[in-house]
Structures are given as C-alpha cells and as structure tokens.
Amino acid sequence: MDGEELLQGGDTEASWSLLSWMASLLMVFGGALPYVPQYQDIQRSNHSEGFSTRVCLVLLIANILRIFFWIGKQFELTLLLQSVVMILTMFAMLHLCCTVQNTNRVSTKQHRLSDLDVRYFWKWSVFEDYLLFCFGFTVLCAVVTLLLLDSAMFVETLGSLAVMFEAMLGFPQLLQNFHNCSTKGMSVKMVMLWTAGDVFKTVYFVMNESPAQFWVCSSVQILIDVAILLQVIFYSQDTRVKLG
C-alpha cells in the first residue's frame, strides 16, 4: 500500500510540474499572441490607422522598467522572459506600421526623432527612431538603477511604475477608438485575447504569490479591455443606425 501511495504521489507531483511548466510557457509567449491577428489585419488591409501605436509605447516602457525591477527584486524568471518576448513583439508591430505608413504616405515630408517636435512624438516616419528612443530610455534606466539599486523604496517604485504603465496598455486604443468614433481597423480578436490573457495572468499572479503590483495591474487591464469591447458593440450599433 505504501508503495502504491508513493507512486500515486509521484504521479500527482509530475502532473502538477507539467501544468506549472505549461502555465509558465503560456505566460512567456501568451502576451504576444493577441498581436498576431492585428498584425495580419494590418498586412491584409495595408492600413494601420485603426491600431494605436501608443499601445506599443506603453508596453515598451512597462517591460523595460519591469526588467530593471527584476534586477532589483528577483521574482519569477518567467516574467522576465515574458518582458523580452513582449519587447520584440512591439518592435515587430512598429516596424510593420512604419512600413505600411511609408507606403501610403502622399507627402514626402518625414518626421524624425531628431526634429524634437513634440507634436509628432511617437509618430516618427522611420523605424530606427523608435529603436533609438528605446535605447536612450534603457540607458537612462540603467544609470538610475545602478545608482539607486540599494534603495528598497526605489526598487518598489520601479515595480509600481512598470505595472502602472502596463495597466494602461489598452488606454491608448480606447482613446483612439473614441477619437475615430469607430473601431474599424482594430482587431476585435486582439482585444478578446487581451481579456482572456489578463484573466489568466490575474489568476497566475495570485496563485504564485507574485508581488501585489502585478495582480492589481492585470485587474485594471481587465476593466479597460471590457470598456473597449463595449466600444465595439456601441460603434457597430451606431454604424447600423446611420446606414439604416
């Protein structure tokens, strides 16, 4: 009997280990999945106006800050890897948007980071300017972190800033939809995957006893996701009324 119980216990432990490994794998790559349908939509339509590139700005800042937060407070390696994957995904989205916008541009006038024109911040014509901005921001964070790494208050503030930016992930898209009075060009699949992913993340953070900043952030994200889905319903009804 003791042998059977030991064998069953081993099987249970192996099953939990497998589930934990799969959950970690989903956490690393799951955050990038919602952008696949949006990427495909932009490629297919050759237009990027419906997608707010400021979503990329928010996520790049959030994940760069999270990497430095990890340096000061080593939490799950899964979340560090997730940040790296997300940064690469946002660069892929920005590269596509720049390519499409340059293809469709009528005017030969280009807006560059070196122009230092606040009106065109994060509306640059060249992908390399986005890389340069992120490089400069990373260097700044590295210098400040190096100087204040021994301060527990600084490290916690860094973590809070990271999750605060991440919590605002959907906010630029919410504003863009409101400004356009339409959700045309935005992938509804992307938002639905955002919502599913944020629910999964919240459960994951609570079960793994991650820093409180993480599950608070994901809870706020769920609320914004729901607001965007309500915009989809509202603007689709409004369109039908106008056509009718």
Structural write-up:
- By secondary structure, the chain is mostly helical.
- The protein has helices at residues 2-30, 35-45, 54-72, 77-104, 127-148, 152-167, 171-180, 188-207, 212-243.
- It is globular.
- The chain crosses the membrane at residues 20-39, 51-71, 77-100, 130-149, 213-235.
- It is found in: Membrane.
- This is Solute carrier family 66 member 2.
Features:
mainly alpha; 9 helices; 244 residues; globular; 77% helix
SSE layout:
Elements (H helix, E strand, L loop, with lengths): L1 H29 L4 H11 L8 H19 L4 H28 L22 H22 L3 H16 L3 H10 L7 H20 L4 H32 L1
Helix pairs in contact: 1-4, 2-4, 3-4, 3-5, 3-6, 6-9, 7-9, 8-9
N→C terminal distance: 74 Å
Radius of gyration: 21 Å
Q: Output the structural class.
A: mainly alpha
Query: Strand-and-helix sequence, N→C?
Result: HHHHHHHHH
- Annotation, overall tally of beta strands: 0
- Low-confidence parts: none
| Overall body shape | globular
Major sheet summary line: none
Would you tell me the overall average pLDDT? 85
Helix content: over 70%
Assess the beta-strand content as a share of residues.
under 5%
Number of helices: 9
